[in-house]
Amino acid sequence: MIWSNEISRRTFFKAATGLAGGAVLGSFGLALHEPHELQVEHVEIHLSRLPPALDGFRVAQLSDIHFGEYMGADYLRKIVAAANAQKPDLVLLTGDYVTAPSYSHRREHNQYALQIWPCVEVLTNLQARCGRLAILGNHDCHTNPAIISEALREKGNAVLRNQAIPIEANGARVWFAGLADVLSQYPDPEAAFRPVPPGECIVTAVHEPDYADELRKYPVDFVVSGHSHGGQVRLPGVGAVYLPRGARKYPMGYYRLGDLQLYTNRGVGMIGLPVRFLCPPELTVFTLRSSTQHGT
Questions:
Q1: Residue 127: pLDDT band with limits 50, 70, 90
Q2: 45 phi and psi, to 5 degrees?
Q3: To 5 degrees, how large is the angle CA 271–CA 92–CA 249?
Q4: Which end is more exposed in the chain, N or C (fewer Cβ atoms within 10 Å of the end residue's Cβ)?
Q5: Does 252 have pLDDT greater than 70?
């Protein structure tokens, strides 16, 4: 009987070890496959100051592309095709088109910034009747922000740095503002919002979502961010294994901060390792709703 129990124990531990190993291998396989499982997130945002004529206005957001080692032109073309299939009225690009390795010398940063050119060649195919707006992220600013901005503008993207511009459609308008990167430049909300007449709706793009706490001081309706990658690797019951500075309070998804609404996009690219786990890449499509139109 003792011998039989010992055999049973050995059989049990061998089976348990095999199951655990299989789970680890399965998880590793998922982590390698998930980076190519783009999710299109549809989010309705109700805004009290949005003109009723703009009810249903659609904004597609792409963030954190990190073109280069882990993001090639072929996959980015698929992402662009997915965005075009949503038929957005406006495309909003929220930074980190390239990657600045932390170990590189400053004189090498230009070569990483030059990855923006093949990236924008693909992004040029994004289609929206009201155009494309862009801000820079911390990686863009740590390489060469002048190169990044030049490439984006040359290919038809309006680059906003502490600026707001009106977007007009259906005889009405909403203001879109873009702020300088929080970690490497100087965001200036007062300068950005100065041209906006009192009472008009403002949607603001800033790369780092935690800056939304500062923006609660201003007449901003909705903030759109990226930067976090959602953590890129998330564990059940734990959440993100790592989050960058500037995205630890509001790492992913929708948040309501009093009168201010915030959304943090998980991004489509990767840094560090070419893996995602329980955190797939994201294309976000916002449908802006007029609270006046819907009585909310």
A1: very high
A2: -120, 115
A3: 55
A4: N
A5: yes
Strand 157-159, strand 260-264: pairing? unpaired
Q: Find all residues with CB under 8 Å of 50, minimum gap 6, and list them.
A: 57, 174, 201, 221, 288, 289, 290, 291, 292
Residue with tokens 């929708």: 254
Single-letter amino acid, residue 53: A
- DSSP β-ladder status, 234-235 and 239-240: antiparallel
What's the mean pLDDT in 194-215? 98
User: Average pLDDT for residues 236-264, to the nearest whole number?
Assistant: 97
Identify any residues that bridge with 272 across adjacent strands, giving them in sequence order: none
Structure tokens at 20: 């655990």
CA distances from 111 to 26, 95, 99, 107, 145 (A): 37, 18, 10, 9, 12
Compute how many other C-beta atoms are within 10 angstroms of the C-beta atom of residue 257: 13
Take residue 10 and report the two structure tokens written for it: 């050995």
- The alpha carbons of the chain give a radius of gyration, in whole angstroms, of 22
Residue type, 89: D
Residue 103's pLDDT is 60
- pLDDT bin (cut points 50, 70, 90) of residue 11 is very low
Q: Which long-range contacts (CB under 8 A, 24 or more apart) does 14-17 make?
A: none
Residue ranges of alpha helices (H) inside the chain are: 2-33, 73-85, 109-113, 116-123, 138-143, 145-154, 189-193, 212-215, 291-294
**Domains of the chain, CATH where assigned:** 37-294 (3.60.21.10)
Question: Please, what is the Cα angle at 89 between 85 and 94, to 5 degrees?
Answer: 90
Using a CB cutoff of 8 Å and minimum separation of 24, what contacts does 5-14 make? none
Structure token pair of residue 199: 């009472």
